[in-house]
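>> received
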Amino acid sequence: MIISLQNRAKDIRELMDDPNCNNEMLERTYENFSVINYWLSCWQRVFNRFILPQLSKSSENTLLDIGFGGGDIPEMMQKLANNKGYNLTITAVETDQRALDFVNKMYPDSEVNYLLASDREILESGKNYDFVISNHVIHHLNEKELKTLADTSIQLCNKSILFNDLSRNYLAYYLHFLLTSIAFRNSFIGPDGLKSIRRSYIKSELENVLGEGWKVKSLFPFRLLAMYEK
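>> returned
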């Protein structure tokens, strides 16, 4: 079947977002995120280029991850900072109790502070952070929701915001279909990944929604990095 990617498929829903979805499949999906993100999400490159140069060895550094999912991204950030000898305190938030239950089981001795909270609740608590990041969050949002997240993140951030997500692309769509139909068939990675690509922004759309002060960079493979620096 030919799928049109000319416009965002804003209204389709991913299987894992269903509160009644199969819990075993959901947990395998969270587990598989670490594989997908390690190879495709470029966070090691992003950390080394955009976060590491701004870290201080003479004081505490702080980072907020919005929408931690399976927890692999904040765990990676923590490990990268520790390996470089930096004191980086990471807070990671989610609004889905199932994700919190998973990371508490998966990373019982984690240095990351995992919380069940929204970005708005963190803002209302009066806290702020040197860095605010998200991975695979913004494609879930419509234009108004994305603008709200961006504005809230600016208020939360002292140094840099980094939103890392998919870019809507035909080659990405069909490669994902081919590569995940067998390898990840016992999780939601295959079907939800296709929906995620259909829901994702292209560079010009993201630039238009975020507006002044934001930069959107294309990353290989099929990624967009939205950046804001104070």
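>> The chain has a mean pLDDT of 96.
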